[in-house]
Write a structure and sequence with these properties.
There is one protein chain. This protein is mainly α. The protein is built from 10 helices and 4 strands; from the N terminus they run H-H-E-H-E-H-H-E-H-E-H-H-H-H. About 55% of the residues lie in helices and about 5% in strands. The chain is globular and about 55 Å long. It is found in: Membrane. Its main location: membrane.
Amino acid sequence: MRAPPPAQNARRWTIHEIIDAAVLVALTAAGFLHPESPGTWFSSLAFSVAALVVPVLSGAAIVTWLSRRLGARIQGPRIKPAPMAREAFETARAMYVAACLMAWPLTAWRLGHPTGLVWDLDAHGVSVTRVLVQTFLGVVVIDAWLYWKHRLLHTRLLFGFHKSHHVFRDPTAFAGFAVAPVEALLTFWPILFLCIPEALHWAPLYFGLVVGFVNLNFYLHCGVTLSWVERTLPRIFLNTSAFHNVHHARANTHFGEALYLWDVLCGTRITGQTSEEATAESAPG
C-alpha cells in the first residue's frame, strides 16, 4: 500500500528553527555538567525563570495597559488586534534563555563561591568612581555589540534567527524581548561575566541598569510616544519609541537597541524626516 501523501498544509521546520530548538536543549542540558551540584543548578534555574518571566510579563502588561490610555499612537488606529499572546510567548522563551545563563552565577553564589556581583566596594578596595567609569565603558562596549549583532541578524544568512521579531510590525510592550533563542543567547551572554570574581559589578548599579534596560525596551515597543520622554532620551543618546518603531516598520534602519549613537555614526539613521513621519510612511494602511 502506498503511504498517504503528507498534508498540504504541513509545515516543515527551517534550519534556523532547528538550531533555535537545539540551543534551548543545550542550555538546559548544560546543567547536568555542573562540576559540583547539578541539582543546585536546576533549582537555581527554576528560581531564575520565575524571577525573570513573572516580572517581565507583568511589567509588559502594565505598560501595555498604560499605553492604551497615555501617549499618542505612532502608527495610527490598529487595523486588527495585536498578537500579544505570541509576543508574550516569545518574550517568555527569551527570558528562559537568560535564566539558563543566570543559573550559573546564582549557583556559584549558593555554593559559597565568590562571584563578580558585590555589594560592598570597600571590602574589595574599589572606589565608586572607578566602578562608575568601568560601568560606563562597559555599557558603551556592550551596546556596540548589540548594534552590530542586530545588523548581522539582518543579513540573508542570519535573518532566520531574527525574523520572528519582525512579525510584530506594530508591537506592544510584550514584544520588548520577543526574540528567538539564538538571538536571546547573543543578547544575554554577558550575564556569565558575573561568574568571574575579578569582573566586579556593583550590585546596586548593576540591578539599576538591568531594570532601566527592561523598562526602556517596554517603552521602545509600546507603540505610543510620550512627548516629554521623546524629548529627554535623545539628549543622552538613548533610543526612543518613535525611533525604534521605524525599525519595526521598515526593518532595514534604526538598529540601535539602547543607544542610537551607533545609528548616527554608522549611517543607519533616517535623516531629513521625523521618526513618526518615517513610520507613518511604512505603516500598513
